[in-house]
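Weekly puzzle thread! Below is a chain. First person to post its structure in token form gets bragging rights.
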Amino acid sequence: MYVVQCSGLLTKQLSSNCIRGGTRLASSFGQHENCGRFREYRSRVALWLKQQSGQVVKACTRQFEFIAAQRIRRSLQIFHLYTRIWDEVALKEFMKSWKHRAVRNARHFLTSSIGVTMYNWDHERISEEELNSCKRDIEEIHRLTNITLICPKCHLRVVIDTQQPDINYCTCNGGKVSATSNQDPEGWKPYIERQDMLIWRKEEPNSGGLFAYKVYGTFSDVTAEDFLQTQIDLDYRKKWDPTARELKIIDTDPESKESADNGIDVVYWETIWPRLFTNRDYVYQRRWIIDKEKRLIVIISKVTEHPNAPIKPGIYRVTTYWSYMVIKPYTDIHQPGIEFGLTYFDDPGVNIPSAITSWVAMSGLPDFLIRMRHASKNYQSYKLITEKENVSDVSHISQSEQIASGYNVENNKESETLGESDAIECDLDEEIEILTPETEESDESDEDTEDSIDEGRGLLRYFFFTKLFV
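Winning reply:
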């Protein structure tokens, strides 16, 4: 610090005039001519400064460079220090987020790392309490109807969007009263009214503007048993629902009783989405029960994770899905006439504008309900055809066994065996030549059919609400 101060003092005192003649320094010293021994060194100091002025300037320059280098070095050290501190903070944040993901997906990580193929039914099973809590859904829907769809003045039905036949509607205020602005304390608002169907919806919290739906329907020509089987018979579902690309049971609760009145399964379901979208798939646990005492059928489906259904590349796995359905027959589960209630929410993982969502709901849902209604009415015919096909397959197998045994008895001689084998080979060659172009043509026609079906499935309304009744 002393060197810096001296250098600064010398730099201020020296100038170009001082370097050439030293006159300014001499004048400054001249003020102290009478100050003792200092007067004797005046001429010597002036002469020395004149002779060593170049060295002094060089020393000051080197000192300045040294100070500048020290400052730059200190700045770099501070920069590296803050960089390391930021790296540590970022590393801590990364570790924190990774730990959160690991905790959230611990079950998936464990099953994938150690190769465990067991599903924890004790932890994941839908409880009896949850089943019992759904048994009053029909009564809750009737209460919701009275709150949001009945005029308090005339006690008649209020129009939601369109009037339906055989219903007496409210005529207060010229019949211009709409129920879309009504709302119950839980947030359910009337949304759609079609023949034999009412739909409410409410915005689900923390879902980014998505809605949960509540459906109430009445089918006078469908039995509760057939309506249930239309939901749980996956082979039949793949026949009447063209949006189901893959639908299968991947696990069954080992503790569930083998009975026709209940069932607990884990189902894998892949749905076909329109072009420009990836297909969606679901892994969900489905539990259903027939309560004969209360004459109710309850079906609950909730998304889950299963080691036998890993995430497939190119398909979006839906992680938020639940549905609760209650079916109540008018008289008996084997007699026509039911009413059903469904509460449902699904997050498909794509932001669809609200206008498109409304159009999908108002046009696609009635079409799907009609298709499902016809499928329920035709379920018994499907069972008869399936049973006949099974019987014919069994009889065909027995006949082929008899023919094979007779063939072995008759062909004891080597010559006859060789001759008939040659004839069979010739016939097979001819059949291959004849069938090959036909199979190729059928394959092409199947491809064309699939393309046309895919084009027909391009509308959003064709698939959106099929998830309601999965």
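Puzzle host: Confirmed. Bonus trivia for everyone else. The longest strand covers residues 211-223.
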